[in-house]
Amino acid sequence: MVMKKLINDPKNVVNEAVAGFAEAHADIVRVSHDPIFIVRSDAPIHGKVGIVSGGGSGHEPLHGGFVGYGMLDAAVPGPVFTSPTPDPILAATQAVDGGAGVLHIVKNYTGDVLNFETAADLASAEGIEVRAVIINDDVAVKDSLYTAGRRGVAGTVLVEKITGAAAERGDDLDAVVAVAEKVNSRVRTMGVALTPCVVPHAGEPSFVLADDEIEIGIGIHGEPGRERIKLEPADAIVDRLLAPILEDLPFVSGDKVLLFVNGMGGTPQVELYIVFRRAAEVLKQQGITVTRSLVGNYTTSLEMAGTSISVLKLDDELTSLWDAPVQTAALRWGR
Amino acid sequence: MVMKKLINDPKNVVNEAVAGFAEAHADIVRVSHDPIFIVRSDAPIHGKVGIVSGGGSGHEPLHGGFVGYGMLDAAVPGPVFTSPTPDPILAATQAVDGGAGVLHIVKNYTGDVLNFETAADLASAEGIEVRAVIINDDVAVKDSLYTAGRRGVAGTVLVEKITGAAAERGDDLDAVVAVAEKVNSRVRTMGVALTPCVVPHAGEPSFVLADDEIEIGIGIHGEPGRERIKLEPADAIVDRLLAPILEDLPFVSGDKVLLFVNGMGGTPQVELYIVFRRAAEVLKQQGITVTRSLVGNYTTSLEMAGTSISVLKLDDELTSLWDAPVQTAALRWGR
Amino acid sequence: MTLNEQPDAAPTDALITLDTAWIVRWIRQSAEVLAANRTALNTLDRDIGDGDHGENMDRGFQAILPKLEGLAVETTPGAVLKLLATTLISTVGGAAGPLYGTAFLKASGAVGSVESLDAAALVALMTAARDGIVLRGKAESGDKTMIDAWTPAVNAGASAHAAGSGVGAVLLAAADAASGGAQATDPLVARKGRASYLGERAVGHRDPGAQSTALLLRAAADTALATE
Amino acid sequence: MTLNEQPDAAPTDALITLDTAWIVRWIRQSAEVLAANRTALNTLDRDIGDGDHGENMDRGFQAILPKLEGLAVETTPGAVLKLLATTLISTVGGAAGPLYGTAFLKASGAVGSVESLDAAALVALMTAARDGIVLRGKAESGDKTMIDAWTPAVNAGASAHAAGSGVGAVLLAAADAASGGAQATDPLVARKGRASYLGERAVGHRDPGAQSTALLLRAAADTALATE
Ligand SMILES: Nc1ncnc2c1ncn2[C@@H]1O[C@H](COP(=O)(O)OP(=O)(O)O)[C@@H](O)[C@H]1O
Ligand SMILES: Nc1ncnc2c1ncn2[C@@H]1O[C@H](COP(=O)(O)OP(=O)(O)O)[C@@H](O)[C@H]1O
Ligand SMILES: [Mg+2]
Ligand SMILES: [Mg+2]
Ligand SMILES: [Mg+2]
Ligand SMILES: [Mg+2]
């Protein structure tokens, strides 16, 4: 089978996409091509904590789409589904250093953690204070001695938005780190895949599902999840995703939450809103109030069909940081 | 083959999605369930021209995602890919009538035109002044005596944004109609499909493409286009889409344009930006300056993989109306 | 006799007329036939349109069924046609909704408030229906639309009536001509509706609206002949 | 003799040492083998990871090739290992980049600035490499990672050296043990890296990193034996 993609050469996918991104959003970002990273056009901002995230490409708009006022200062895209190396992470860290230190927001994958770690060491050696917060919101994976720990998935978007707002209002590095850790500690996510995706350099589906099978607990690189089951009605699938999320924190009656229904890339909006409808209904039944919401393709796996549900327990601080102005390619309000 | 969708019952797809949409965006919209339409939460606005659009569902965020400050006052979703009937169009028209008249923005399909026409007649009979602007930006179809005329496709988003801004600043009905017609007269679009989509009630792909075939000039309901060709590199496809767009208006050296790369639903963002990169490059080569841009899934065909390119010739008025604040579920800036 | 009863016996020859009970039976029969042909019409529409014509027609004719239950005995054929028209307009959507809706609205006007329809009235009914579709859709013969079923049907019905046929024969002639007309759309290039976007690629496919017209007129003839 | 020439003749037995030219040949041979196994490693990684391990390793070893062209004659084996380490760190990405990068950085440190490596130095090199990976990745034996190839290799190399083997035999023992270790990952459940998310589902699949380690050590043995 010929791989059907709007690409030129698999080797140039990330470069060309980043070049297009830079053209389309020149009002918000600048791009460095070698080493490759995306940075706020007004970086570095003197006295502001810089926030850098990154990881394998193929999850767009994560992370480049979240670079801008009130969110990330820079994003470092690796090859598709492969962590970037330390060099561009270091360069991005230098580019956003405004003298107040830099936070690395890192999804919990061995590759990402190790490469960001190396970059942080190199940056520290140059006198930049770097701290890292590791995102691990995915309840599909047990966080135990017997795994590499929970994966960082769509909850990362919420961490980046809220932490970005804290940095934008002038919080110092300790405070920004504390906000990021707080959001990470209060957000839980679980996903489902209906179809796999095809990584351009591989040219073949990342996994195989029968016509009537779905993968509950899928990772954002097509890593398998908890179980493979037969296709069910949307409401039943939502219930399967929500139950482990709610019991994990746990979320309890009286909680106010942000409900985030994320599309994996290939799922139409009507389906995401059908999922949202049911998720909101279940939360209401449990006495949990949805006070903020987000629906759309924000942490994708190329063209994978599927969704993830994230629930974040809000308080006044997190709510007001969520509401604070943000101006990025993919998330924008208040300016 | 089992249809793989996050739905419950094909008959409830639109109802449930609209219910979820209403929950998720209660700060921006209200929803009427019978007859079904989505309306700005602050409608009707006294003295403001009301703007109503609508059409078959399955193109989300078009149109419901564009209801809100500075864009549409109401959207009327029909069944998937089927024009709504006059009843909900009439009800939506009444709901947004602030005494200054109502504009219907209608994509040029026989069904949409006829149903909006009937609704307009009924509304007029009730003393509401209604005008319609028919959008026909698709250059894939020859506008001749021998066709139903050009189809309305992704350019509709640009018409809705800019016309919405004109109504929001207080233009009267004649002026609002003039802006809508002006945008429609200056925007051209052409699309390509890599894969078909499956309409829920049909349960089967809307058309069949071989593994290595693409459809140039696809319509947003999977209607065939100009020609079916073998898969090519993205740049070659972009060139095929752009050439008829540019020669049609024609766009000429010195023009300032808005370049809009639209995703059909199932195409990852990296691919859309690869398309944008090439389109911007070609425009630059021809002396045409891209001064505004939009990239993303805005006029979709469910999970179809593909893209469309729209080019809108700007002037100062259109540019400032484009830049004006907008607050909808799918397009938001300036507030 | 209530509207839902079968007539005890039926007179023969050209003097027979069709009353409201027939219109109701025709609509019910049409609903049944359209439900049975839902997928087939969707498939025709998928080939050269957007695949929803069976869905649309089925939705409309299912919507009228409950409304037929509560009809007052004195309801005229014209009033039922008007009810059908408004129901189709408000439930079918797409192109077919307004077109069939206008057709039956005009048909209702053409038959006025008579209590039963003779052959002349049936010809007037069909002519008005066809003219209504042309008024809304501006299609000409040969454009590969439902008009290509309606116009032969009107002509055949008028000829049969002129030759002295009764209601059953008039409707049978119309139904046969509609079937032929639908079939004759196969080789055409479309110039109206979605199929017009296809150019030459529409050749070899039947127009779904012409096909649904043929089904409706066949149901009319079948129920009229069963009455006779 | 320049670095890119083959030695005219090679001494035999345990007194032989491997110089910078060998390290260069080993890296070139590795690049060739990894390119040939790119798809195979991707496939292993697709089964229990994210399908990029072959891609990642190939990218890294292709990146070092041009840098080997301009090496000064006096470059030590340790310096080449360091160049390999920094190149892998800055081009491979993923988990394998930092892990192999650290391995060869530590290996470079372990061999210091000697001009050629005897069997003892090779054992020290491999031990330092393995320890570097453990330091970064915290994996233990049996976690189904590249460590499960490295540790048997180190042990087998050390035993061979202790038994008086020369460089070729030491590397051959290591390569054989690495192959066996890689194969022995098949029945394991993973506790580190992406495969750990799969639980029981990882059973029956080979760890891609262990496999690439086996390939690298096989290339080392092959080029050393060709030298002898
Ligand atoms: N302008 C027109 N005049 C007459 N009939 C038309 C016209 N446009 C479309 N039709 C008929 O409508 C049918 C399609 O109806 P349907 O599929 O229900 O609506 P849509 O095209 O909006 O999806 C066509 O097969 C054709 O017979
Ligand atoms: N903590 C660890 N310690 C040792 N080796 C590891 C560890 N995590 C992963 N690996 C090795 O890395 C390999 C995967 O590398 P690669 O696919 O290139 O990176 P990624 O997993 O980031 O995609 C695994 O097969 C395994 O051998
Ligand atoms: Mg990887
Ligand atoms: Mg339709
Ligand atoms: Mg149709
Ligand atoms: Mg991998």
Describe it.
The complex is a heterotetramer, with 2 copies of chain A (335 residues) and 2 copies of chain C (228 residues). In chain A, helix 2 packs across helix 3 and helix 6 packs across helix 7 (269-285). Chain A is built from 8 helices and 15 strands. Chain A is globular, with a radius of gyration of 19 Å. The mean pLDDT of chain A is 96. Chain A folds into 2 domains: 10-186 and 323-333, 3-Layer(aba) Sandwich (Rossmann fold); 187-322, 2-Layer Sandwich (Hypothetical Protein Tm841, Chain: A,domain 3), CATH 3.30.1180. Chain A is an alpha/beta fold and 335 residues long. Helices cover 32% and strands 26% of the residues of chain A. Chain C is globular. In chain C, strands 1-2 form a two-stranded antiparallel ribbon. Chain C has a single domain (18-227), classed as DhaL domain (Serine Threonine Protein Phosphatase 5, Tetratricopeptide repeat, Alpha Horseshoe), CATH 1.25.40.340. Chains in contact: A-B, A-D, B-C. Chains A and B meet through helix 1, helix 6, helix 7, strand 12 and strand 13 of A and helix 1, helix 6, helix 7, strand 12 and strand 13 of B. The complex binds adenosine-5'-diphosphate (2 copies) and magnesium ion (MG) (4 copies). One magnesium ion sits between chains B (56, 81-82, 111) and C (50, 52, 94).
